[in-house]
């Protein structure tokens, strides 16, 4: 299989002593951290074994809208927090980490999170070493320029049917979680992935989303675009010869869009014993850990860190709780707002009474 492989996978010793792979840039999206759908433990293993100079988080990293629907705040399990720690750790170690908000984690774009309560806009700023932007331009080693954005701009599916689709997929992801918990052999299979691909494919055809993406790429002064949102990774060519690349998702499987030092692009899909590599020309093939010399690295599973970055991740959780408040927190905020209004009214009324008494006393 090595003779068919175009992308070069450079083996490197990682900080924890294991062998891993180096890519100059890695693009990932649609993790939906804090929800049942995230493959958090496998995602931690992927981040353990991948080193990069630039990590792009292309939207829907946090399942914000899902957390807002919960009665109480709950951010997944310990592996979800470890994923946050990985991002902060890579930023601390010199990786340029860029966060592009999506439609499920749109709060950093600046929006109202409660009645009269707005979350400040984070795009254009940096927080805990992570740069927040609406979109970005990336240049690969071949000099090709790509616009990086989440991709919800191309999807007109909003309102009732969007919520129905999200609810149905979340229900299937919960079913997948049940299957994977009690039937370990089913962990490489996903009912939600099959249904989601059919659902997203139907919506994409109905709303002609792919054509919108191709037209957008042709009108931009770039060589292509990199986006997420649809959860369906792959490559497509435009009429103008440009390329649109989707980095997949990290719910049913862990996927990432990468390129090597020669500028060869590929989509990696991580399985228990291999990567499924999809090249820019559409060819796909498996690459097993033994071919890459990573077989021993995979034996120990993901590392559970208890360092400063892990502590910082816990602090980030408090920001996430405020950005995507649960129903209970929204009710608490609303009660506090009403209490403040009552105090102001009582103060105004008491002042008016005092002023009236002073007025009457002056003319007594």
Layout of helices and strands:
Elements (H helix, E strand, L loop, with lengths): L9 E4 L5 E10 L11 H10 E8 L6 H5 L9 H15 L3 E4 L11 E4 L2 E3 L6 E2 L2 E3 L3 E4 L5 E4 L11 H23 L8 H16 L2 H11 L4 E4 L6 E4 L5 E4 L7 E6 L5 E6 L3 E6 L4 E5 H4 L2 H5 L8 H16 L3 H36 L2
Parallel strand pairs: 2-3, 3-4, 4-8, 10-11, 11-13
Antiparallel strand pairs: 1-2, 2-14, 5-6, 7-8, 9-10, 12-13, 14-15, 15-16, 16-17
Helix pairs in contact: 1-3, 3-9, 4-5
Short description:
39% of the residues lie in helices and 22% in strands.
Main pleated sheet: 10 strands, mixed
> What would CATH call the architecture of the largest domain?
4-Layer Sandwich
- The parts where pLDDT drops under 50 for at least 5 residues are none
In CATH terms, what is the fold-level topology of the largest domain? Purple Acid Phosphatase, chain A, domain 2
State Rg: 24 Å
Q: Helical percent range? A: 25-40%
- Helices and strands, in N-to-C order? EEHEHHEEEEEEEHHHEEEEEEEHHHH
Shape: globular
Features:
single chain; 364 residues; alpha/beta; Purple Acid Phosphatase, chain A, domain 2; 10-stranded mixed β-sheet; 5-stranded mixed β-sheet; 17 strands
Q: Overview of this structure, please?
A:
The longest helix is centred in the C-terminal third of the chain and has 36 residues, at 327-362. Strands 1, 2, 3, 4, 7, 8, 14, 15, 16 and 17 form a 10-stranded mixed beta sheet that branches. A 5-stranded mixed beta sheet has the order 9-10-11-13-12, covered by helices on one side. Strands 5-6 form a two-stranded antiparallel ribbon. The protein is globular. The protein is built from 10 helices and 17 strands. With 364 residues, the chain is of the alpha/beta class. It has helices at residues 40-49, 64-68, 78-92, 160-182, 191-206, 209-219, 289-292, 295-299, 308-323, 327-362, and strands at residues 10-13, 19-28, 50-57, 96-99, 111-114, 117-119, 126-127, 130-132, 136-139, 145-148, 224-227, 234-237, 243-246, 254-259, 265-270, 274-279, 284-288. The chain has 2 domains: 10-325, Metallo-dependent phosphatases (Purple Acid Phosphatase, chain A, domain 2, 4-Layer Sandwich), CATH 3.60.21.10; 326-364. The model has no long low-confidence stretch (mean pLDDT 82). Helices cover 39% and strands 22% of the residues.
């Amino acid at each position: 299989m090595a003779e068919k492989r175009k992308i070069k996978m450079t083996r490197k010793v990682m900080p924890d002593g294991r062998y891993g792979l180096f890519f100059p840039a890695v693009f990932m999206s649609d993790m939906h951290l804090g929800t049942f759908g995230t493959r958090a433990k496998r995602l931690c293993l992927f981040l353990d074994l991948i080193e990069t100079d630039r990590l792009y988080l292309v939207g829907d990293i946090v399942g914000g809208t899902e957390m807002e629907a919960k009665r109480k705040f709950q951010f997944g399990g310990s592996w979800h927090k470890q994923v946050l720690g990985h991002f902060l750790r890579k930023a601390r170690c010199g990786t340029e980490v860029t966060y592009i908000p999506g439609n499920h984690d749109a709060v950093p774009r600046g929006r109202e999170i409660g009645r009269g309560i707005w979350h400040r806009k984070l795009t254009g700023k940096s927080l805990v070493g992570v740069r927040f932007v609406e979109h970005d331009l990336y240049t690969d080693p071949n000099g090709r320029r790509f616009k990086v954005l989440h991709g919800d701009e191309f999807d007109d599916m909003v309102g009732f049917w969007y919520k129905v689709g999200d609810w149905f997929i979340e229900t299937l992801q919960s079913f997948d979680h049940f299957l994977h918990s009690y039937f370990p052999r089913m962990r490489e299979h996903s009912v939600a992935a099959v249904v989601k691909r059919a659902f997203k494919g139907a919506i994409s055809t109905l709303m002609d989303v792919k054509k919108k993406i191709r037209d957008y790429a042709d009108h931009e002064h770039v060589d292509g675009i990199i986006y997420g949102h649809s959860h369906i990774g792959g490559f497509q060519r435009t009429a103008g010869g440009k390329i649109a690349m989707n980095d997949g998702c990290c719910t049913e499987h862990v996927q990432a869009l990468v390129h090597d030092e020669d500028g060869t692009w590929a989509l990696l899909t991580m399985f228990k014993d291999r990567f499924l590599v999809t090249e820019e020309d559409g060819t796909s093939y498996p690459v097993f850990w033994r071919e890459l010399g990573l077989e021993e690295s995979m034996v120990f599973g993901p590392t559970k860190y208890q360092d400063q970055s892990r502590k910082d991740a816990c602090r980030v959780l408090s920001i996430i709780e405020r950005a995507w408040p649960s129903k209970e927190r929204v009710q608490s905020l609303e009660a506090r707002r009403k209490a403040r209004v009552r105090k102001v009214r009582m103060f105004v009324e008491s002042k008016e009474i005092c002023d009236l008494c002073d007025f009457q006393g002056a003319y007594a």
